[in-house]
Amino acid sequence: MVVQSLSKARPLHSLFRSFHNFKPYLFFSSLTQQQSASPPLPNLVNQISRVLSDHRNPHHDLDHPLTSFSSHISTQLVEEVLKRCKNLGFPAHRFFLWAQKISGFQHSDQSYRILVDVLGSSKLFAILWDFLVEIRDSKQFKINPEIFWLVFRAYSRANLPVDAIRAFDRMVEFGIRPSIHDVDLLLFVLCKRKHVKQAQGFFDRIKHEFEPSAKSYSILVRGWGDIGEASEARKVFDEMVQRGCSIDVLAYNSLLEALCKGGNVEESYKMFRDMASNGIEPDACSYSVFIRAYCEANDIHAAFRMLDRMRRYNLVPNLFTYNCVIKKLCKNDGIDEAYKLLAEMYERGFRPDTWSYNAILNYHCEHSEVNRALRLISRMETNECLPDRHTYNMALKLLIRVGRFDRATELWESMGDRGFYPSVSTYAVMVHGLCKKKEMKKQSLKVSKNDLFSLVMPQQYRINLKFMIDDY
After folding, report:
1. CB contact set of 251 (below 8 Å; sequence gap of 6+)
2. Do 436 and 408 meet the contact criterion of CB atoms below 8 Å apart?
3. Across residues 113-133, what is the average pLDDT?
4. In 313-440, where does DSSP find H-type helix?
5. Mind giving me the DSSP string for 295-338?
6. Interatomic CA distance for residues 258 and 268, integer angstroms
7. CB 143 within 8 A of CB 116
8. In whole angstroms, what is the distance from residue 134 CA to residue 126 CA?
């Protein structure tokens, strides 16, 4: 019966082919994605990306297979290919150089920024610096502080904080005079990756050359708090006061959060009560610090008391705080209260995001509530909140687990209509689930072997999926 129901639906392997028509994913939150100007562009992006994926070795002849695309080259095409190939740093760089040699073609400023980010993400730092020196000397592109922000972030993500600081010191070599804003950006990316000690050492070295602001200190306070060093956070805050910096509510909130994360909730709450007497009026973020702390301590009643106080003062929690409470309610079987908070968010002008819905969906999936899970996904669509890969992965796993292959097929078919194109993890869920059912084995193997490996994806994913398929 299951085989018959699938045979009536659109063949599953056609869904794999439809993947190649998706709009390229925006890898860089700070870089604006441009929409396709002509229908052939997505296909060209797919084809060139596949060529780059197949020619990763430095000894491969890449120029020859790219020759047929010379007449189609455009700045938008180059940008989209570079965005798609974030994990293919070396061939992406070679593609950039190849396009540069085409007569009459000139890269956009955006292409330079994207390639810097791609090389940094691929940890090709030697090539990255050679590239920066080359464009500086040739004056093809004016290097600005934003380029160095990408370099800071790349080194921080690679757990190379010392190199990130050296990059800051090299800004002058490229004609850039660092500002306090650049200092703050470097402190932020270092602290975000838990390199707080290095960030503090850098700050102590340069704080006499620049005029630190309350923002600079707040970043460090929050950083120390994130790694549970409340005493260090307090030292930085006290130094800020001694230097006569203007203490604002952001600085206070950073310390409140640092103290809470360090386990000093009572001390933090005492400081919270004294804010008004020090001329600082607590804002929604001040209250949210304690709501999250109480949720972390599994004290949902205390969290709701703070929510009630916020309502009395007409303060609205942010989306992250709402999601934190919803998640905790779902883990404590408070699903009805979670739905009430979801409704409250709309009433107070907030639009729940996928995290809000996924927390509730996870509850339905864990309790095998198929109808409620699918109704929630429909509600997301009605409320213009697009399901993401986590949404679909959870729902597909549920439907396969309970043997509802008809509903799984319907959900798979609806993805494209909702503007979602499966990621490799979603394919893995579907293929693995179908392989586990003996009556679906042949269909699954046919899909995966004929279509799965034609996708543009990191090589390690292809290998992992191949092993999974070959096990059956």
Report:
1. 214, 217, 218, 221, 237, 240, 245
2. no
3. 96
4. 319-331, 335-347, 354-366, 370-382, 389-401, 405-417, 424-435
5. HHTT-HHHHHHHHHHHHHTT----HHHHHHHHHHHHHTT-HHHH
6. 9
7. no
8. 12
Residue in the block written with tokens 């804003």:
181
* Residue 72 CA to its chain's centroid (Å): 31
Q: What is the pTM of this model?
A: 0.72
Cα 117 from Cα 149, distance rounded (Å): 10
Q: Which residue has the higher pLDDT, 356 or 456?
A: 356
Supply the pLDDT for residue 285: 94
CB 58 within 8 A of CB 105: no
Listed residue (281, 276, 290, 357) closest to 321, CA to CA = 290
Using only the alpha carbons of the chain, give its radius of gyration: 26
Q: Comparing C-alpha atoms, which of 227, 22, 203, 28 is closest to residue 110?
A: 28
pLDDT of residue 245: 86
Alpha-carbon distance of 215 to 207, in angstroms, equals 13
Average pLDDT over residues 96-113: 93
Other Cβ atoms within 10 Å of 416 Cβ, number = 16
Q: Kindly state the percentage of the chain with pLDDT values over 70.
A: 84
Task: Give the separation between CA 432 and CA 350, rounded to whole angstroms.
Answer: 37
- Say whether pLDDT at 36 is over 70: no
- Distance CA(213)–CA(180), nearest Å, equals 8
pLDDT in tens, 173-188: 999 999 999 999 999 9
- Integer Cα distance of 415 and 156 in angstroms: 36
**Rounded-to-integer distance, Cα 267 and Cα 260, Å:** 8
- Which parts of 163-271 are beta strand (E)? none
- Which pLDDT value is given to residue 162? 98
Q: Which two tokens stand for residue 169?
A: 């010191």
The overall average pLDDT reported for the chain is: 84
Return the half-sphere exposure (C-beta side, CA atoms, 13 A cut-off) of residue 350: 19
Helices (H) and strands (E) in the chain, counts: 27, 0
Average pLDDT on 414-421 reads: 82
**Distance between CA atoms of 326 and 291, rounded to whole angstroms?**
12
* Per-residue confidence band for 406, with pLDDT thresholds at 50, 70 and 90: confident
